[in-house]
Design goal:
Layout lengths: L8 H10 L1 E4 L5 H13 L8 E3 L16 E6 L6 H6 L2 H11 L3 E11 L7 E4 L2 H7 L6 E7 L10 E4 L22 H10 L2 E3 L7 E5 L4 E3 L8 E10 L24 H4 L35
Antiparallel strand pairs: 1-9, 2-3, 3-4, 4-11, 5-10, 6-9, 6-11, 7-8, 7-10
The structure holds 2-oxoglutaric acid.
């Protein structure tokens, strides 16, 4: 393996203080170029991107759905650009330094906020769902890589700085896949934590804690906003529930840090198994459809 500049003590401290760490130019223009070119050529990613149901009933695929977010998801990694990036040494080592032990890939998304028809994604914590999977500790995070600029206009992520220190907030049942914070509690939280836009340029990286309360705004820009959202779990924190074999701890087959730079990958999206998000019987479908889960809080 090549050597990677480790995160500094100050960066690790900032992550634990704020719940996130922004790393400008984490990937170089050349490293992200194959993916950027592929999504520009074919934003449907071979017809596999889904208008994800994240609004009220019957709004899936409806361009008037103000919550619309489109994505592909995967939990196994191939040797294409997508899988190689998911296994990249720089990301694996930074994630391990922030979590405090070795990590494995939990699952990931490539999320598009289309320039037309995407709205505000409500405030939520990712660990709410991962707790439902049976991960008992919140030693989980997401590494975001911007494939386009993400700013206030194009619907960037928004964080409540330091809100990961609240711990896991109870999810409340509702008709929104992300619904997990009671409105009265949320109002109090919004009063108490600073809201910050996660401004990213193409190629920037950003790590955020599974308990960080976050949302994203509508895209009013004249381009689609694309973010890679790669999630990792501590190796000692695999889910305790039996139906989670797709989330079992598997040592990450770390890709050398220069793999993207050298073009040491096969195509962009073709060799990482992309989930068919419409197949509710598929292994791992519960990542996206949690309605049937028992209330475990
Ligand atoms: O891509 C986005 O705008 C937000 C995605 C997100 O927060 C999530 O899927 O948990």
């Amino acid at each position: 393996m090549s050597s990677v500049q480790p995160l500094s003590a100050d960066q690790i401290e900032a992550y634990h203080r704020d719940g996130y760490l922004h790393l400008p130019a984490f990937l170089s223009p050349g490293e992200v170029a194959p993916a950027c070119e592929a999504i520009a050529r074919d934003p449907s990613i071979g017809g596999r991107i889904e208008h994800v149901h994240d609004g009220v009933e019957d709004t899936k695929g409806d361009p008037r759905n103000g919550y619309r977010l489109d994505y592909i998801g995967w939990f196994r990694e191939g040797d294409d650009w997508l899988g190689t990036c998911t296994r990249l040494q720089r990301i694996a080592e930074a994630a391990a330094a922030l979590v405090g032990e070795g990590v494995y890939h939990y699952h990931s998304k490539l999320a598009c906020k289309p320039r037309i028809g995407s709205g505000t994604l409500i405030w939520h914590q990712d660990y709410g769902g991962w707790y439902q999977d049976g991960c008992v500790r919140p030693d989980m995070l997401t590494c975001v890589i911007a494939l386009t600029d993400a700013n206030e206009e194009s619907g960037c992520l928004r964080f409540l700085k330091g809100s990961h220190k609240l711990g896991r907030l109870d999810r409340i049942p509702g008709d929104h896949a992300y619904a997990n914070i009671h409105p009265r509690r949320l109002a109090g939280i919004l009063d108490r934590f600073e809201e910050v836009p996660a401004l990213m340029r193409r190629g920037d990286g950003l790590f955020f804690h599974g308990n960080l309360v976050h949302s994203s705004g509508p895209n009013t820009a004249n381009y689609d906003r694309w973010l890679l959202e790669l999630s990792y779990n501590a190796l000692s924190n695999e889910p305790v529930f039996d139906d989670q074999s797709h989330h079992a701890a598997r040592p990450l087959d770390v890709a050398p840090d220069d793999a993207l730079r050298r073009g040491a990958f096969e195509g962009v999206f073709g060799r990482t198994p992309i989930q068919d998000l419409s197949d509710r019987a598929a292994e791992g479908a519960s990542i996206y459809y949690r309605e049937g889960f028992p209330l475990l809080s």
